[in-house]
Amino acid sequence: MSYQALYRVWRPRNFKDVAGQTHITRTLQNAIVQQKFSHAYVFSGPRGTGKTSAAKIFAKAINCEHTPVKEPCNECAACRGIQDGSISDVIEIDAASNTSVDDIREIRENVKYASSSVPYKVYIIDEVHMISNNAFNALLKTLEEPPKHVVFILATTEPHKIPLTILSRCQRFDFKPISNQAIVERMKTIIDAENIAVSKEALETVALAAEGGMRDALSILDQAISYSDEMVQLEDVLAVTGGVSQGVLTEIVQAMYHKDVQEALQLLDTIIQNGKDPGRFVYDLIYFMRDLLLFKSAPSLEGLLERARADEAFQSLAEAVSNDWIQDAIMQLNQCQQEIKWTNSPKVFIEIALLTITNRYHDQEQKTGSIDSDAVLQMNQKISQLEKQLQQLKQNPGPAVNQPEAAKEKRRPARTGKNSYKVPYERIREVLKQAEKQALKQVQSNWADFLSRLKAMNAPAHATIQDSKPAAASDQALVVAFKYEIHCSLFLEHQETVESVLSNVLGRQLEIIAIPDNDWTELRADFISKQEKSNPEEPKDQSNPIVDEAKKLFGDDLIEIHD
């Protein structure tokens, strides 16, 4: 073929052309100049980061006619012969197809012979982790004490599979993924030399899609050049890679954040219908969210963005969304990414993820708004009560002595103790006189909702009132029977809060009067006895064993007898 791919034509021939690996090329150059290079090296790192190219450049540099030099001249017979593969002393071996002990035994036999045309015989073994354990053991002795004219360079993408006995006998260099900026600069050099027009956005998108590999970047660029007409645009690269533009990602995130489910699902459907890869879309969206969170947290680190450009729309979106929302969205998308690996319907899982992100944020916002409204209502009621008390103090600055009528009646002896609570018997009797069954039923039917609201507010009163029960109710007051006397005392400290929450649930204001459960039983029996004595002519219900048994099980409050 007359045409060669860009990554083959522009394969590095000097150390300076190896992009993004300065920490390795500088070390090797200094070792060559000082004639202190090792007999064995391990070059490890991701694909397309320059491992084999650096090995070949190293072989040319140590065999160059002008050595010691930092860069091979690429003009002498040794450099040209190594470059085109005509010199047999530089041997490139594919370990994936030469894994047996016999292949290593052949190497052991050949290393004994001196090089024929260059000073050093170099063995470049690619994907060396594919060699079997027995073959590694066969290579061990030769690798430890090779002849002075032999250099081994072992290249691999999985160094953890190489035995430690081999690694300990080599100098190891870890090639890192190439940064997007370094990839873009290298591609600019290539397109300028090839006289190809490529937009800046297209180059940046190619670098993002390459994921740190220069060979992948040049392959994508080569493909985009073939797809485009005159100038390679962003749309051409997206069409080739199956990626989604930043503008579409921004629109989807905005739709989810503003709870526009219809817009988000329509955008997703358009993406899938256009033939975009669902897995690639989720991958791009996760990294877009990551860049959004990074830019929002530290705008000065714009150079660390991997899937986004900090344009005006991106900056506006970063100001609008919250950090918590972004983090929750990333977690949901990560879970979706794991699930679509094992399904034939990835679109369904992506739709569920988008709905979950939108609805979860919506539910949290509603819950927060409800709690805030309750807090504001309590604050307003507290302010109004304080204003009333202040007005009373202005009108009557002297000490107010309030003698209730209940003092004239025969009262039980007051309890003494740290948590003593004086039961307002007369006030409760007034409530019993005005009590209505319908009012009590309304409170009982809404009591569970009332307790749940108290619990949602994290109100301290919930702990004291959760074991209580409504005993009697009128239009203006509610008698609540508490299990213990101490709960009545603690209730007084939070009475205003409890009454405000209850009024929100019922839609009307009720005063809550607390009474211990034992006192309520005695007071109720005494009240019923007095009512019967005051109405002797009223016919009494005849005893019925079924009614008596029902009263034992459910109590008199819940029993209503009909003829």
Write the topology of this structure:
Layout: H1 6-9, H2 22-33, E1 40-44, H3 51-63, H4 77-84, E2 90-94, H5 101-110, E3 121-126, H6 133-144, E4 150-156, H7 164-167, E5 171-174, H8 180-194, E6 197-198, H9 200-210, H10 214-227, E7 231-232, H11 234-241, H12 246-257, H13 261-273, H14 278-297, H15 312-320, H16 323-339, H17 346-395, H18 425-434, H19 437-456, H20 461-465, E8 469-473, E9 477-482, H21 485-493, H22 495-506, E10 511-516, H23 517-534, H24 545-554
Parallel strand pairs: 1-4, 1-5, 2-3, 3-4, 6-7, 9-10
Antiparallel strand pairs: 8-9
Helix pairs in contact: 2-3, 3-4, 5-6, 8-9, 9-10, 9-11, 10-11, 12-13, 13-17, 14-15, 14-16, 16-17, 17-22, 19-22
Distance between the termini: 106 Å
Sheet-strand content, in percent, reads 5-15%
Sheet/helix structural class:
alpha/beta
Measured on Cα atoms, how large is the radius of gyration? 42 Å
Classified in CATH, the superfamily of the largest domain is P-loop containing nucleotide triphosphate hydrolases
Architecture of the largest domain, according to CATH? 3-Layer(aba) Sandwich
Helical fraction equals 55-70%
Taking pLDDT < 50 over at least 5 consecutive residues as the criterion, the unreliable ranges are 400-418
Strand order of the largest sheet: 2-3-4-1-5
Q: How many strands appear in the DSSP assignment?
A: 10
> What is the mean pLDDT?
82
User: How many structural domains?
Assistant: 3
In DSSP terms, counting alpha (H) and pi (I) runs of 4 or more, how many helices? Answer: 24
